[in-house]
Amino acid sequence: MIAPIIGPAIRHAADALGSAALTESAVVRALHPLFSRVLQRKEIYLANHSLGRPLDQTADDVREAIDAWYAEMDGAWNLWLREQSTFRHNIASMIGLDRADAVVPKTSAGQGLRSVLNALDNPRVVATRGEFDSIDFILKTYAWKNKAKVRWVEPAPGRPPRFRAADILQAIEKESPDLVVVSLVFYATGQVLEDARSVIAAAHARGALVLLDVYHAAGVIPLDFLSLGADFAIGGSYKYTRGGAGACWLAIHPRHLSDNSLRTLDTGWFAKHDTFGFERPEEPLLAPGGDAWLESTFAPLPLFQARAGLQLVLAVGVDRLRAYSLSQLALLEGELQRHAVACVRGGPSAETSGGYLLLPDPNAPQRCDELKAAGVNTDARLGHIRLCPDILNTGEELSRAAAIIARVLRG
């Protein structure tokens, strides 16, 4: 696999943690100083599954990109192009790819989905009702415009509803699709798709491609994209890698990087064989490998915005972050139960759940407003309040949050 590229300040902080499992005292001592600006906020932030909290360095990274623009004008592109390469390299390292060019920067995960749809001709698609709103909306729009035929897999009833691999397998068997679109971790419930390998294998046996939405997995759950064997993955930096909006990506399995038959309509001059040669042959000659999936002039600032958070995740290690996340979730769950607040996980066990807990509540959006007014910042989806601690939350904060939540929910 690819070794990550990590700057000295973040490397120094991560080294101070040592190599053992993360502890709160070590995290507070070594990592919290990297977040002095955001830690000034007087609230308990438990929406880390939504907008991740940025490092202090993030502002300096974006300023570096803008300062180069002022100082060098078009010469800034040398810096900006290097940052694009670094971003691709580090995403590949995080998700278990052995080629940086297999990662294609996008401004949204939906843009990655459209790139794949636009490489196929009126595809038959199997997808679940649990896909994120943007993915759901894009697929429905393609179906409405007769650009795709979509078979939707419904969840099994329950609170929260859960998607079963068996139901997805049945849809694949019945429909013989061209493309299967499914989340590795479902955004609304945090459910990890169990037996994802069987779903991928069944799709391949039927000649279908598989696109995994890993937005709620990348950075919080260890990923090995090559081992999973999916054809594509989409994700982004908004959540667990603390990079804000606009720094997303499409990952392509290397077996497709020399497949000239799989050519997307979503393209532009950065996908040309010689981007800066300005030649215009009648046949569009593509760049080699994953560069053939690039598009027009990219937005450089989101890549700088994403730099520090991505480096931190890589320096600390997703495996250690996952173990620490599970310990925090167990603590928060225990505190909520102590206050007689019912909560659930996305899956039947910790290992089959993503990075947050759910509180069932029919008035979840209103409750979130009340919680924020009381000092706990979180969010709601589909009848549930979502609670996601991260490395900036202490045990004392989680205990205090549980008490506040109990008080608010009781009115």
Let me know the number of strands.
12
Alpha-beta classification: alpha/beta
Strand content: 5-15%
Radius of gyration: 22 Å
Q: Output mean pLDDT.
A: 96
Low-confidence stretches: none
In short:
This protein has 411 residues and is α/β, with parallel strands linked by helices. The protein has 14 helices and twelve strands.
Task: Explain what the structure shows.
The chain has 411 residues and is α/β, with parallel strands linked by helices. Helix content is 39%, strand content 12%. The chain has 14 helices and twelve strands. The strands form three sheets. The protein has a seven-stranded mixed sheet with strand order 2-8-7-6-5-3-4, with helices on both faces. A three-stranded antiparallel sheet has the order 9-12-11, covered by helices on one side. A two-stranded parallel sheet has the order 1-10. Helix 9 (225-228) links the parallel strand 6 and strand 7. Helix 4 runs parallel beside helix 11 (307-316). It is globular. The mean pLDDT is 96.
